[in-house]
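Quick review question:
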């Protein structure tokens, strides 16, 4: 993706064009992970049922996914439903699954037209059969796309993923002496994908919520007060710009600190 192509999508005179012009397309994060938080608070602020916040959040998903694809991101992962979310009221869970199926049906053409490949990570086998069928169909129909990889984390937990990876490693017969971080990563749900360079969390909460615990070891974290239903293209561009202003050291030190011997 180029700046010209991105600007062609943004309406003329829109403030987002100014943000787009600041993006360094040579320094895009290879993988952006997003914790979509704030649906309930968004609804509460409007004196609406919680489920209305989830409905409104669909528009944010649509905008974020298309923005990521048009930017030229390699991988975008959205945290849609955690293992812990099963503790919520059955009616809310039912609505979430209904909205997921509706999203897959309504947005499939958009995914295909933007060359987006869909993948699902998590304990998918524990979902209802009809949800699994919808997911399988969308994954199969986008399998030929070679643009952005769009991961939906469903029935997902970071600790559960590590446990599942350990089980797969044991089942593979790998010897303990042969197991290192690189080999272990091959048993994760995200095997073969780059780790997230940027983790975005909405609603101002300062926690990672059991999300991609192995993969975000060196991710830059960006927190916005914006509630998820209000998250749009401009917020995504602002997150990318904030990421590009940071110096990533991966546990190292800057030359200036090395000179003075600071710790």
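Suggested answer, residue by residue:
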């Amino acid at each position: 993706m180029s700046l010209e192509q991105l600007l062609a999508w943004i309406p003329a005179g829109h403030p987002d064009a100014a943000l787009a012009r600041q993006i360094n397309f040579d320094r895009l994060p290879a993988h952006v992970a997003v914790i979509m938080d704030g649906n309930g608070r968004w609804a509460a602020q409007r004196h609406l049922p919680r489920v209305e916040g989830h409905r409104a959040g669909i528009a944010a998903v649509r905008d974020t996914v298309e923005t990521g694809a048009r930017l030229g991101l390699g991988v975008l992962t959205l945290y849609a439903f955690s293992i812990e979310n099963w503790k919520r009221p059955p009616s809310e869970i039912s609505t979430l699954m209904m909205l997921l199926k509706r999203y897959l049906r309504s947005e499939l053409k958009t995914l295909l037209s933007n060359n987006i490949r869909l993948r699902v990570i998590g304990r998918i086998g524990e979902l209802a059969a009809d949800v699994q069928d919808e997911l399988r169909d969308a994954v199969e129909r986008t399998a030929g796309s070679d643009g952005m990889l769009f991961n939906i984390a469903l029935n997902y937990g970071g600790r559960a993923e590590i446990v599942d990876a350990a089980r797969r490693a044991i089942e593979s017969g790998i010897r303990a002496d042969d197991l290192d971080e690189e080999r272990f990563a091959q048993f994760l749900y995200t095997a073969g994908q780059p780790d997230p360079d940027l983790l975005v969390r909405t609603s101002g909460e300062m926690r990672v919520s059991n999300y991609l615990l192995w993969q975000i070891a060196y991710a830059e974290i960006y927190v916005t007060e914006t509630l998820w239903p209000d998250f749009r293209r401009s917020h995504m561009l602002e997150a990318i710009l904030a990421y590009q202003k940071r110096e990533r050291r991966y546990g190292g030190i800057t030359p200036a600190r090395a000179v003075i011997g600071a710790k």
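Why it works: The first strand starts at residue 31 and ends at 35. The chain has one domain: 27-260.
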